[in-house]
C-alpha cells in the first residue's frame, strides 16, 4: 500500500484517545491493517464516554458500561492486544499531572515504540477532551523518554518521527518533518476557512 511504508518499523503502537470511540472512528482501518501486519496495538481511552447518547433513557453509568463493551468488541475485531480505560468523566478531561503519570505508566507497561494521539496544538482540535488527551500523552512521553524522544522534542525538524493531521473528511495526511506538518496544518486551515475540503 502506497504511503504505508511509514509504519514499516512500528512494532508496538499505543494510541491515546479521549473517548471510547475515538480510535475506531479516526484510525480503525489503519489499525486493522497494522495488526494484520503483526504490529501489537494498545488502546488507551482517557474518559468513560459517558455522555452523548441519543437514547435519553440511558444513565451516565449505563452509557459508560455500553461504551466499554463496544470498545472491547472493537478491539477484538481490529486485533488490538489490550484496551485501557482511565475512568475520567466525559467532557471533564484536563491534562493533569495524574493523567500524565497514568499514561506514562502505560508507556512503560506496554513497551510501545510508537505513539498516536491528538495534536493538542492544532487550532482545529475543538474538543477540549481531545486536546487534554493529546497534551497529557505528549507530556507523558517526557516522563519516560528515550534518547530519540528527547531529541525529537528538542529538535523536531531533525527528527525522523512522523506527524499526522486529520482532514475534515476523515482522511489523514502524514508528514516526515515538523515543518511539513505545520505547512499541512496551514493549508487545511486555509481550505477550511474557504469552505473547501
Task: Summarize it.
With 197 residues, this protein is an alpha/beta fold.
Sequence-ordered SSE layout with sheet pairings:
Blueprint: E1 12-17, H1 22-36, E2 40-47, H2 60-78, E3 82-88, H3 97-110, E4 114-117, H4 128-141, H5 147-154, E5 163-166, E6 172-175, H6 178-193
Parallel strand pairs: 1-2, 1-4, 2-3
Antiparallel strand pairs: 5-6
Helix pairs in contact: 1-2, 3-4
What does this 3D model show about the protein?
- By secondary structure, this protein is α/β, with parallel strands linked by helices.
- It folds into two domains: 10-144, Rossmann fold (3-Layer(aba) Sandwich), CATH 3.40.50; 155-197, no CATH class.
- Helix content is 44%, strand content 17%.
- The chain contains six helices and six strands; from the N terminus they run βαβαβαβααββα.
- It has a four-stranded parallel sheet with strand order 3-2-1-4, sandwiched between helices. A two-stranded antiparallel sheet has the order 5-6.
- Strand 5 and strand 6 form a beta hairpin.
- Helix 3 (97-110) crosses helix 4.
- The longest helix is centred in the middle third of the chain and has 19 residues, at 60-78.
- The model has no long low-confidence stretch (mean pLDDT 87).
